[in-house]
Amino acid sequence: MTGDESTADEGCRERQTTGEDRVRMVARQLSEPRTANWIASEAGWSHEPTRRVLERLVDDGILHRDDSGTHTTYYPDYRRQALQEAMRLRDGGYTVEELTDRLAEMKAQIREWKGAFDVESPNQLRGTLTDDTLDATEEDRRREVAREWEQLQRRIRIVGFAIREWDFLAPTTEPAEASS
Predict the structure, then answer these.
(1) Is 118 part of a structural domain of the chain?
(2) Stated pTM of the model
(3) Where is this region: Disordered (predicted)?
């Protein structure tokens, strides 16, 4: 794709979504707390309307606000995200066997990294970056593996939950009965 095509695609996307839509999309995909300025920049919208949308998302329980640091940050309800992802896995046409196989693959990848780098965690792997014998390429590789490792750990928890709660997560066409 040429630069002109990329710009045209971005322009088309921006015309098809409102600034509020883009802020909501960015906010729902957060994997760590971010400031309103960061979210506004990612959404391609100005700060003040972004902040108003974020506050509405906080009021609706979709986001949490943290005022304890030097800057106010926003982050999603990670439990809600995990439950929604587990439901997507359940509804996504996978079988419980396929998810179990995927879970085994992810765990095998982590065991491989543990053996290859002789560490037990992503942070221990990051700690190896102090080794003066590593070149820049190897340092970059280890940082990337640490990020992937953390992502796999999150995925393992979600996939494991989806497997354990397979029956509970099954879509239902019957309305829930109110208990008396």
Answers:
(1) yes
(2) 0.64
(3) 1-21
Shared-domain flag, residues 58 and 94 = no
Question: Distances in Å between the alpha carbon of 7 and those of 2, 13, 159?
Answer: 9, 10, 37
The H or E element spanning position 100 is helix 96-117
List the chain pLDDT tens, one digit each, 180 residues: 444 444 444 544 445 789 999 999 999 888 789 999 999 999 999 999 999 999 999 999 889 999 998 999 999 888 888 898 999 999 998 999 999 999 999 999 999 999 999 999 999 999 999 999 999 999 999 999 999 999 899 899 999 999 999 999 988 766 555 554
The domain in which residue 64 lies consists of 3-76
Spatial separation of the C-alpha atoms in residues 74 and 23, rounded to whole Å = 12
